[in-house]
Amino acid sequence: MMNRCLGLFLAANLLLTGCVGYTLVKGGQKLELGQGLSVKPPRDWNRRTEGKHEIWTLDGPGLQYILFVKGIEDGGRIFPGPARRLLAPKKDTFPNFRKGMSSLEVGELFEASLARRGAQKIAIAGFTPAKFGGKDGFRFTFTYRTTAGLNMRGITAGALLGDKLFMVIYNGTELFFFDRSKGYFEKILASLTII
Amino acid sequence: MKDTFFPGKAPIIFLVLVLMLAGGCVTTAYQARPNLAANPEKRRIVLLTPDVELSVLHAGGLPEVNAEWTRLAKKHIADNLARRFRNINAQLVKRVEKPEDVGRDPREVQLLKLHGAVGRSILIHQYDGAPLQLPTKKDKFAWTMGPDTGYLKQKYGADYALFVFVRDSYTSSGRVAAIIFAALLGVHIQGGIQLGFSSLVDLDTGEVVWFNRLLRGTGDLRTPAGANETLGVLLSNFPQ
Amino acid sequence: MNKTAATIFCLAAVLLTAGCAGDEFGFYKKGLKQGQGTAGKAKAGRDGGDASAYRMADLAPSHKPDAKSDEAGIWLQVENVERRVKTAGNRMRLASLNAYIEKVTCRVAGTYCKDIRVYTMRAPGFNAAMYPNGMMHIRSGLLLRVENEAQLAAVIAHEAGHYLRQHGLQRLRDIREKTNSLLFFQIALAGAGVPVVGDIAMLATLAGLSAFSRNMEREADGYGLLLLSRAGYDPGEAWKVWQYLVKEKKADKDAETPSFFVASHPQSKERLDTLRDLAAKMQTPSTADKGRERLAKVVLPIRAGLIRDELHLRNFGPFEFLMDGLIERGDNLAELYFFKGEMHRLRNKKDDAQKSLEFYAKARKAEGTPPPEIHRSMGLVHQKLGHGKDARAAFRAYLADNPDAGDRAMIKHLIGKLGQ
Q1: Do A5 and C414 touch (CB under 8 A)?
Q2: Closest residue to C10, CB basis, from A5, A89, A94
Q3: ipTM for the assembly
């Protein structure tokens, strides 16, 4: 019972104060993202950062987004979670990145992470080695349906460098929004450099 | 799992809070175009399932949906819209969805869900003062669902789609008594709230040509006159 | 929200959720008395008496609420929910499964067959919920945790009991009563200078304080057994479902919070004993239906996907418990050994890698068919352990079995890399 109480108290707190706003990313300029990453977007975007995660969007993340995962380490998550945990859990059973994972295992981690966020009918395809900021990495496409029933498509690019995982994930609604900004995503990805 | 990083899937209560935080105006309408199509034969507007619930607010604040009021409100809204549209030389196309038809047309289902997602995005990311306003959206109104909406144009014989969402609560006598009692102690407690939003989509292009949100403490959808007043506010700046 | 406000809210929330603490068996007896009507007295005692005396009270088949009632308003709200559920992404649409569930529900519900609509929602774990308008949700994870059709029917019958006795409606009315009485408490505090937290009721409903009271659960148990028995199922199967959940909970030693279902359904020993005793008194013929094969026929084709859902939770204690239970039942052991291998591979502690290889080997020898990605898993483990040759062989076998695999380019690349 107390858990629920605290949960509600913190949830209300989060709703009222926890939102970090969006800032503008100017197109045509190189932008340092931290953790050795930089990109040069072809046009203006909106951006929000939270630790090692960064989300870009044009129309709102419910419609399309680019998620930058900037060198998460052992125990880290692909998708950013709630700002604060309600209680310190005795153990964390959320799918986490583990040092020493291979790219195929990262693909599994991606699928499990999506599933834990409510995605249904997840399918991964076109899993292939690819350059990531000039370094050896991987790439795959994916589709799923949200709990609400909206179909989604996406592309993931990433690399395992040292003990860290870097990813750039593009996600958009199957109807219209994925196709609309796919070109921008590819340009941003092509412009990506990593030290 | 709820999180603040992807609030696109926020439940309605989050939206209410966002609206209240954004504060300021009772109603703020965005208009991408001042007029509907010039051709009188291309001014057909289909009303997509009005999502309306009227509740009575009990003394303790628990809202209880009143089916009879809701049924009346839906009727008044449809009647009033038909009249308003006739006045601007447009036609209201009614869409009746039987329970057994839900989900039968997967293409339509995806379009309607996409519309819901676009509407939520507008509410969360467009308005000045909203904590998650997108800088690229500021000082303009440019939203679209994409041209797949042509499917709905064909299906309903309409050029535009109107979406209406209303949650309206009315104070019970117990609540009124409580409000008076509290006021005597110098305490403010909430009376009824009228919350709504509405959007008009051009079914040729998928463009959202008009959008409005409404949040206020007055308004009565239970009578034709009340519905007329509420719709006057909800449809402010509607293209002519 | 400041601390005092939070305390007030919590106090209010606690008051709202306190169910009737009274005599547990009294509630069974009360239900019986109603059931008996004018005929005789209920047998007092620990077992709650003769369950066959329950009558299907208060709700007629094809019930629709009076248009002007509060019940009509609730149905309207739930109908909105049901409309969304129909096209929800997590609603299972498999025709064979849905037809089967509908058949079982109809058998259990009898004359109320047309009033209850069951939706199977895709998610791991055990859950079942009844809504006031006849909509029922069961979670797909439940299908892994019932041994036979009678146990599935027991869950459906229990939930149907909630519907027949209108517990949902009663509960909402209770909350309204309680929040009304709390209002003046709230105002008095506000008047004393403590800032108003916001409508207690709104926050209470936000917190989802809509679990049925414990006595409602007991009443649903009683009606459930009766429906089960009348439908020709063995009512002695009902208590086994709840017992399984108790054991599964024990296997999850570090659980942060119990699942909502477990928390809202009393799992006390006397509840299990009561279910058992009541069933024993029902004089069920030995030929009473359990339906093990009929359930297996529907679940086995989709079982791998359901197990994968469970594995996504990465909660290995209860997962192992679940797997060991399924292994005991013995259907398609190859598939089950494969998933035990997956468990070890994903847990990846100490000697898990070696254990996973042992299970994959066992899966390949066992009765049944392991999922086609078994060789990929073997390849991944061999790769981790540095067995280059074995890894290549496994990946090649995977490609041979899965020429259209979504990751074939990456696997080919790996085979090449491991060859160096």
Answers
A1: no
A2: A5
A3: 0.88
